[in-house]
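Researcher: Quick test of sequence recovery. Tokens follow.
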């Protein structure tokens, strides 16, 4: 299996790469949570803003049963950003093995799916990305993270929606395991597809001729008893 992240870091999450990333979208309207500690503010001003790297750099990711912390550490290195683990979350939450296959996505999208696969999320704090459980994200941090993710969404969504409408698909599949169908769509039609674990044991029968991709996805969802949504550059199938 081709795996650009086959050589993974053995360092714990928390590795910091301080080479900054210049340029990028205008994020001046998205402000991080404030701090009243002037000493922290002085130190933290030297930490590069991680958002441009998440919005600019693209990678392909192909990992299977790899510890979540190792994949996150590699993403930190690729994106030249700092990712740390929430010290108040039990260590076992960060030891889950994840399997994620994505092609040509923004680092921000890759990070989202790596953490989502293990039931985690992230928020920004003092120039770092903090991996944590969803219930640990505070109100102010959640607002800031939503603002950033809206900016991330605007970076990729218009192009992908246009591709789903214009791209036509022809195939004749009979009782094919869903993971193989998702892999087929990702490799041959440049549309990253992921399904929730509860759907992965299902098979797909699909016989279409030059049907717009968006309609093919509707047919697949109906066959699976599922719905599909666009999230972080991915077509995501979830049970009804």
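Model:
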């Amino acid at each position: 299996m081709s795996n650009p992240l086959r050589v993974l870091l053995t360092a714990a999450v928390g590795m910091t790469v301080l080479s900054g990333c210049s340029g990028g979208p205008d994020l001046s309207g998205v402000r991080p949570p404030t701090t009243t500690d002037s000493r922290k503010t002085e130190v933290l001003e030297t930490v590069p803003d991680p958002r441009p790297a998440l919005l600019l750099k693209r990678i392909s990711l192909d990992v299977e049963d790899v510890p979540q912390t190792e994949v996150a550490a590699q993403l930190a290195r690729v994106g030249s950003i700092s990712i740390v683990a929430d010290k108040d979350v039990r260590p076992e939450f960060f030891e889950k093995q994840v399997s994620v296959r994505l092609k040509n996505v923004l680092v921000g999208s890759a990070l989202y799916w790596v953490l989502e696969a293990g039931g985690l999320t992230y928020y920004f704090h003092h120039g770092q990305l903090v991996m944590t459980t969803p219930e640990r994200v505070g109100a102010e941090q959640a607002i800031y993270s939503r603002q950033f993710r809206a900016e991330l969404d605007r970076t990729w969504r218009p192009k992908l929606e246009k591709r789903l409408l214009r791209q036509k698909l022809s195939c004749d599949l009979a009782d094919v395991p869903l993971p193989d169908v998702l892999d087929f769509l990702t490799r041959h039609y440049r549309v990253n597809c992921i399904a929730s674990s509860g759907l992965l044991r299902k098979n797909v029968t699909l016989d279409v001729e030059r049907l717009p991709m968006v309609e093919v996805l509707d047919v697949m969802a109906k066959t699976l008893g599922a719905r599909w949504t666009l999230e972080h550059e991915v077509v995501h199938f979830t049970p009804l």
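The helical segments are 38-44, 51-56, 68-79, 107-117, 139-166, 178-189, 213-224.
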